[in-house]
Amino acid sequence: MNRLEPAPPSAPAPSGPPPGVLSAAVLVASLGYFVDIYDLLLFSIVRVPSLRALGISGQALIDDGVFLLNTQMAGMLLGGVFWGVLGDRKGRLHILFGSITLYSLATLGNGLVHGLPAYAALRFLAGVGLAGELGAGVTLVSEILPKELRGWGTMLVASVGVSGAVLANVVATRFDWRTAYLIGGGLGLALLLLRVGVAESAVFRRLERQGRAVARGNFLSLFTSWGRFRRYAKTILIGTPTWFVVGILVTFSPEFARALGVTGAVSAGSAVMYCYLGLVIGDFASGALSQLLRSRKKVVVGYLCLVAATVAAWYVVPRGQAPDLLYACCAALGFAAGYWAIFVTVGAEQFGTNLRATVATTVPNFVRGMLVLITSAFQVARAHLGLLGGSALVGAVCVGVALVAAVRLEETFGRDLDYLELDEPLA
């Protein structure tokens, strides 16, 4: 077992009442994640028109689309480690606003590209920037709110954030794809103005005053203890089905619609919008349930069972029907995947203050980065089993592994987060 020790009382906690759920930090974290999701999902919405504008057509719309999506996710994998380590060493606010700056500039650049290589390079940089936003926000909110309010705060961050996908679809339907990217970049830069009035968490400041007495942001220490590694791996695995839903079923919904014989054209942008409308409601519901049931674990297991049921329905319900029924399935999938609010909270609650930002930032990005493996497996399975059979196989594996991890997950509801994660040997 890992040695988990309370942080030494090197300085008294600030006096006064604890910050409320609607504090400045929660507001900035929520809006930051809102812009993060806008940019992250915008590519899925404008994939076809943007690639066609660059002279790409036919099967290449899927192949090059997967390449660009994987490039973005690879950037998020690297960015997750970079921003996470920086957050534990320099502070939560450094990554919160540094990441916003990088992905905003890269998104602006996406609106000006004229070739696939430049498109890919800027999606990679955007991915690096996008990697820091959610983890920084959730870590900051988790540390500044009292434990009885923590779940409500992270629920607001996740719920407000995922609604950014709705705005992305609205903008993309009213403007061309270049303008949509420019608007996203501008929103991110405007968000930097809200930095005024947001303070660093007192929990981190107490850790910082210890100087070099405690190792901070040691990413490799997650792999030098079986206990830490198991907690880390299980936390990542429980989030994997969310990106199978978004990255495969919803992103490629026009192709699935044709394979299912849907009687009418299906827009990827509308599919993403309905999915994320479901996610907003699902995040509110899962966050509220975790507070009422006083359990993260029960809610995660229940929602994963719901994911399994809605994914199975995806292959049956819309067959031969109008697009509206497929969009309804997208909304149901989104609601089922709406345990994201609990998932990111669990990531922050599983580890001590000196590793919390590293974990909270890398875990959601490793889940997003798992999409590289998911889409690669999807491509291989699709070649042998077809679009429907290949995706069903990959989805079954994702959900099955996540359920096993969730059942073995540690309960973290109400845990005091003012403690340290100390180094231990692997053996």
From TrEMBL:
Q: Does the record bear Methyltransferase in its keywords?
A: no
Q: Which PROSITE patterns match?
A: MFS
Xref: Pfam families? MFS_1
Gene3D superfamilies, A to Z: MFS general substrate transporter like domains
Question: Is Glycosyltransferase a UniProt keyword of this protein?
Answer: no
Q: Which of UniProt's keywords are assigned here?
A: Membrane, Transmembrane, Transmembrane helix
Describe its membrane topology: Multi-pass membrane protein
The Major facilitator superfamily (MFS) profile domain is annotated at 25-427
Where do transmembrane segments lie in this chain? 21-46, 66-86, 93-113, 119-141, 153-173, 179-198, 235-253, 259-279, 300-319, 325-346, 358-381, 387-407
Q: What is this protein called?
A: MFS transporter
What is the gene called?
Answer: yjhB
